Fold:
Amino acid sequence: MNTNLPAIQIDDLTVAYDYKPVLWDIDLVIPEGVLMAIVGPNGAGKSTLIKSILGIIKPIAGTVQVFGAPYKKQVDKVAYVPQKGSVDWDFPTTALDVVMMGTYGSLGWIKRPGQKEKKASLEALEKVGMLEFKSRQISQLSGGQQQRIFLARALVQNAAIYLMDEPFQGVDATTEKAIINILKELRQAGKTLIVVHHDLQTVPEYFDWVTFLNVKGIASGPVMDIFNDDNLTKTYGINYKVAVNQ
Structure:
């Protein structure tokens, strides 16, 4: 978009469940055009941070801005790939139907998808290698195939920002490679990608930006500058040694 504004700016964000802080006083600036990993231990608030950006969870304090405005004014600029375990995969619908759901935001609720939207959805399925499964019920797909379908649904939205909650969870190596290649292509096209990620070994290979999170924000910046033993130890509470190819 080249707005000269941060893709996302978070100030003093605090989220609590039953009075227990899950995120505490988070300040975070995510530049436009980065492929960023959010890393931290279980219970660190990674998914909560994504849902707070999307307005799914209401914070008790703080603000989130997307390109300088509240998320609800920028909904059409953001696409979301939820955690696979949060989706009802038994819902009776086809792969193509799921992808076409990604066009609803631009159409509104009254107008139905037409040939233009179907063509875009088929192209998105082809991009993720799932075109031959377009008529398959989603419940009949493997975990990796389901994840590709949800990536295609996000792609068809042609958003400026993509938020993804553990897109590599439970997928095979071939699917993981296919997904990261698509994410890198999107970044090269100027998109901003924010990915909850758990495999520390692949952070230097996959991402150019990283945010360390453990209820509080530990550090955020270019991978080559801050992905180091010190920040890993501060985040995970134990001595970490990860080889980083700089």
Notes: The CA atoms of residues 180 and 240 lie 25 Å apart. The longest strand covers residues 20-30. The chain has a mean pLDDT of 90.
